Amino acid sequence: MNSMVAPLADGTRIGRFIIIRDVDGTCHALCASAVAALCETADGATVMLIGGGRMLRVEQDLRTVLGWLEVGARA
């Protein structure tokens, strides 16, 4: 990978995928339909339940994450 390329911003759409970086810094490319549930935490972060029962915790609030997942939306 070229070190001169800027990292993708959270919520960026590439085709059918949405780029999401979890609190551990791992970058995920998810289809909106792969997200089974969202839960807002007491500190304002969001937990996403994805396929296989995996959970991703992201620093953004629930409203922001819902905007990313909106069908047909473009970031």
List keywords for this structure.
mainly beta, OB fold (Dihydrolipoamide Acetyltransferase, E2P), three-stranded antiparallel sheet, 75 residues
Task: Give the topology.
Blueprint: E1 13-14, E2 17-21, E3 27-31, E4 35-40, E5 46-50, E6 54-58, H1 62-69
Antiparallel strand pairs: 1-2, 2-3, 4-5, 5-6
Write up this protein.
With 75 residues, the chain is mainly beta. It has one domain: OB fold (Dihydrolipoamide Acetyltransferase, E2P) (Beta Barrel), CATH 2.40.50. The protein has 1 helix and 6 strands. Strands 1-2-3 form a 3-stranded antiparallel sheet, with no helix packed on it. Strands 4-5-6 form a 3-stranded antiparallel sheet, with helices on one face.
Structure summary:
The protein has 75 residues and is mostly beta strands.
For this structure, what is the CATH class? Mainly Beta
Strand order of the largest sheet: 1-2-3
Rg is 12 Å
Task: Give the overall shape, derived from the CA principal axes.
Answer: globular
Give the overall average pLDDT: 88
Order of helices and strands: EEEEEEH
The total tally of domains equals 1
